What we know:
The chain is of the alpha+beta class. The chain has 14 helices and 14 strands. The protein has 2 domains: 341 residues, Aminopeptidase; 111 residues, Alpha-Beta Plaits, CATH 3.30.70.360. α3 runs antiparallel to α14, α9 crosses α10 and α11 crosses α13. The longest helix is centred in the first third of the chain and has 27 residues. It starts with 5 loop residues before the first helix and ends in a 13-residue tail after the last helix.
Amino acid sequence: MRSLTIAACAASLLAAPALAQETPTEREAARDVLKKMGELETSLDVPGLVAKLTGPNPARDAVTGRAKELMEKELLALGDDITRNPEIGFVEKRSVAKLTDYLNAHGFEVTIGTPGLETAFVAKYKGNNGPPNLGVIVEYDALRGTERAFHGDQHSTQGPIGIAAAVAMAEYLAKSKAPGSVVVFGTPGEEMMPPNAKTEMHKAGVFNGMDILVRSHASSATTRPAPGFGTCCLNIDGVKYTFSGAPAHQMTSWNGRNALTAVIHLFNNIDAVRSNIRPEARIQGVITEGGAAPNVVPDRTVADFYIRYPDEVYLKQIREFTDNAARAAALATGTKVKIDHYGTARDGISVATLAEVGFAYMKKFGAIKVTPEPGKPQGYEETGSVSRHIPGLGFSAASSNFPNHTYEMEADALTEVGHSGFVIDALGMTALLFDFATRPDYRALVKREFEGIQALQNEYIAALEKPYQVPKVPEPR
Length: 477
């Protein structure tokens, strides 16, 4: 690796998992776990693996060359088309049609729709030949902007990137008659929940049998995660509170029960208990329904919350505080409340045997704005539900000069900086899948690391149960 000596790289891998443990309580609970994780990573010799896999290999270069050809001749244009025609989550029908038409034309059998998800799809190559099973996740939903839907996260070209790698690998496996299968998973609504598409697909068994899953995501820098368990944006519970009251004329409001007053009480109740909640918590809510007319007592209101904390164990206590705040608001106002725990995001697993190889390939293929040190451990997809059960990697070569979720990042998707980053992601993804498909020893090493970190994550969660004791409150005397 050019930017680090082998010794320095190994040291950075050992130190990096601590980045995911963001509170003193977590760091104390994780002390023994991180020591064991360091021993596991040392035993893998990841720097040696990177050097071995990324060296000269004409067969691999031919397959990445095919992916590059597909991108430059057809798939960048397809990405541009989807960028110019954005569709928000769960209604991405035009985008799905464009992507699946291309897959059909290149030998894939496509099924559109999975349980509960009309714009999800599964595309299996017709020439599949048993394991190893290579899965490619693609996304295509746009952000909800105040002005318009827009591809400020560049999901518009995630599909073409993944398809280039999938087609190139499928053609290679079929031509060489080598064992292996390629499946493309279209996952809608990454920017929205409910439902949480990947979690629902995982529960339905859509990803069953996959030995690896890969995806890409836009970034303003070329990065990779450290090995371990974590998430980009804290563990999340999505909760919706719906209050039901009774309507009346506002001049005789005592004849009704005000659901708007109840939802305001909910926010006030949460603010009142913040001093009893650990400061790293984030409780973020909006009122999505607040009544229809000022002269009618509102009989229905809805508040939507993301409740966040660095770990899933203490998050349970925070959610109990907010649920009780809603119940108290209803009791105080004579209304009723329905509590809908509609979605979760949890720590996922990242493995160095995939992340460091993928990172080396992105640099090999010319990635810019390279971040030398690994970032915090985090799963390769946002829910954690998939990435804590199936090993994988999210590729993120720099593809914009602007931050995510901006109109400027959308504009960059149509320019050289975007196109270059997209091609690099496709080439890196193809190269990694080639190595994984053709080297049983590499697959075994990935499996060993992944299962080792899985076991350590369970040990870590169990250790966190001890310090988060709920105080005993006696009955009043």
